[in-house]
Design brief:
Distance between the termini: 31 Å
GO molecular function, one term: flavin adenine dinucleotide binding
Keywords: 2Fe-2S, FAD, Flavoprotein, Iron, Iron-sulfur, Metal-binding, Oxidoreductase
Largest sheet: 6 strands, antiparallel
CATH topology of the largest domain: Rossmann fold
Strand order of the largest sheet: 5-4-7-2-3-6
Organism: Arthrobacter sunyaminii
Protein name: Ferredoxin--NADP reductase
Structural class: alpha/beta
Shape: globular
CATH superfamily of the largest domain: Nucleotide-binding domain of ferredoxin-NADP reductase (FNR) module
Cofactor: FAD
Helix content: 10-25%
Number of helices: 8
């Protein structure tokens, strides 16, 4: 049995373009039409944007939201131009106020379970975007302390510089911002990062930035003895397929092998049969359920949901860490049922 699933993208209008630095632009976005809960999101999640392209397979890129769902502000994504960056260069060169963009609903697991904790945040360059969302949300809706260690090449490359100064003045007893500038201090190294982190080893840690920077921070924290479940790292990989293109979801009927699955999505609950050997996302698509997804490769976390009951196995996983897995999070595009009954939610 096969169903051709056509992804219906949401549309957002660009209502403002803010030039943060010489090579980083923030797009302020407003949903078009009636969208309901489609654009509800958690601090640290991302949007997938369609990039106009004549390339085979199209083009799409994931950009973190730097806005806070706890504050009365519009959706914002910040895009930093990168050398030979197909998506970032197109956005920085072409997107202006009034443009309408196609996007998929917010997704991602780089988000705190509670905003009432004390946080230690590490950001490198444009990796500050999801970290900024967490920082602002924790200050607005939480009651804990927040420390940000922010690495950049020089002072002129600091994204959100003025906003961070303003937030520090508004929350002098709760927010501490520590800048690391390459032109002054050189590249961050493990001993230096360890020394900065040492006073905050009891906190929840979120890390985003270039790969070597994140690896350096993670190794420093491991040396300090921080438990892995308190260290969260955001890693993006380029999408190998076009998430906006129609997808044929094939579900094979395997006699005598079927799981009963109950799915909670957008505050509605559906029960259906999950034929053995099939991936959860394909089963949901064939049932006409508008489950979120993007890459279908186990590499982007857009299809993340949580197992409330039962057991599954994943055929591939490049984004969920051990802490995510321990909390029951799975990738629907890679999940195959193991137990006879499974309960899944997308609403947590």
């Amino acid at each position: 049995m096969s169903t051709l699933s056509v992804v219906t993208p949401q549309q957002v209008r660009v209502v403002e373009v803010i030039r943060e630095t010489s090579d980083a632009h923030t797009l302020v976005l407003e949903p078009e039409g009636e969208v309901g809960d489609t654009f509800s999101y958690k601090p640290g999640q991302f949007l997938t944007l369609r990039i106009p392209s004549d390339r085979p397979g199209g083009a799409a890129r994931c950009y973190s939201l730097c806005s806070s769902p706890q504050q009365d502000e519009k959706l914002k994504v910040t895009v930093k131009r990168t050398r030979d960056g197909y998506g970032s260069n197109w956005i920085c060169d072409n997107v202006v106020e009034g443009n309408v963009l196609d996007v998929l609903r917010p997704a991602g697991t780089f988000t705190p379970t509670s905003l009432d904790k004390d946080f230690l945040l590490f950001a490198g360059g444009s990796g500050v975007t999801p970290v900024m969302s967490i920082l602002k949300s924790a200050l607005a809706a939480g009651n804990g302390l927040v420390t940000l260690v922010y690495a950049n090449q020089d002072e002129s490359s600091i994204i959100f510089r003025d906003e961070l100064i303003a937030l520090s003045k508004q929350h002098p007893g709760r927010l501490t911002v520590i800048h690391w500038l390459g032109t002054v201090q050189g590249l961050p190294d493990q001993p230096s990062i360890g020394a900065l982190a040492a006073p905050y080893t009891d906190r929840e840690v979120f890390i985003c930035g270039p790969g070597p920077f994140m690896d350096c921070v993670a190794q420093a924290l491991e040396t300090l003895g921080l438990p892995p479940e308190r260290v969260h790292i955001e890693r993006f990989t380029s999408l190998g397929t076009d998430p906006f293109a129609p997808v044929a979801a094939v579900v094979h009927d395997v006699e005598g092998e079927s799981t009963e699955v109950e799915v909670q999505l957008d505050r509605q609950t559906r029960s259906l049969s999950w034929p053995g050997g099939n991936r959860l996302l394909d089963v949901l698509i064939n049932a006409g359920i508008d489950a979120p997804y993007s890459c279908r490769e186990g590499a982007c976390s857009a299809c993340t949901c949580r197992v409330l009951e039962g057991e599954i196995r994943m055929e591939r996983n490049e984004v969920l860490d051990a802490a995510d897995l321990d909390e029951g999070y799975i990738l629907a595009c890679q999940a195959v049922a193991v137990s006879e009954k499974v309960r899944i939610t997308y609403d947590e």
